[in-house]
Automatic annotation (TrEMBL):
Example GO biological process: positive regulation of metabolic process
Subunit composition and interactions: Heterodimer of an alpha and a beta chain.
Family classification: Belongs to the bacterial histone-like protein family.
Name of the molecule in the record: Integration host factor subunit alpha
Keywords: DNA recombination, DNA-binding, Transcription, Transcription regulation, Translation regulation
Any GO MF annotation of the entry: structural constituent of chromatin
HAMAP family (UniProt xref): IHF_alpha (MF_00380)
Source species taxonomy: Bacteria, Pseudomonadati, Pseudomonadota, Alphaproteobacteria, Hyphomicrobiales
InterPro entries in the cross-refs: Hist_DNA-bd (IPR000119), Histone-like_DNA-bd_CS (IPR020816), IHF-like_DNA-bd_dom_sf (IPR010992), IHF_alpha (IPR005684)
Entry function: This protein is one of the two subunits of integration host factor, a specific DNA-binding protein that functions in genetic recombination as well as in transcriptional and translational control.
Length: 106
């Protein structure tokens, strides 16, 4: 792994380079997309992005956990968690270690 983190600014810069939108419009576009995804998830809707994967919310029930330092049992309250399931295309890209662009260049 390279250790690099992809940020909102990186996404906006990619839109500038690939689409040619001005920088401020690219940043607004990235924000709108991310806000729409998070708003949909907050409403309990599933978000599916073709060739990428799907995001959803799962309800976790109350359970008993253990404090690793003291060993004392502690109740863990019920909560909702965000889950991501990658598409088969994404799994293949990750496991092959190569991007589509690399394959096309050969």
């Amino acid at each position: 792994m390279s250790g690099k983190t992809l940020t909102r600014a990186d996404l906006a810069e990619a839109v500038v380079r690939k689409v040619g939108l001005p920088r401020n419009e690219s940043q607004e576009l990235v924000e709108l997309v991310l806000n729409e995804i998070s708003d949909s998830l907050a409403r309990g809707e599933q978000v599916k992005l073709s060739s990428f994967g799907s995001f959803g919310i799962r309800q976790k029930g109350e359970r008993i956990g253990r404090n690793p330092k003291t060993g004392k049992e502690v109740p863990i309250t019920p909560r909702k968690v965000l889950v991501f399931r990658p598409s088969n295309i994404m799994k293949d890209r990750i496991n092959s270690g190569r991007s589509r662009r690399t394959k096309a260049a050969e």
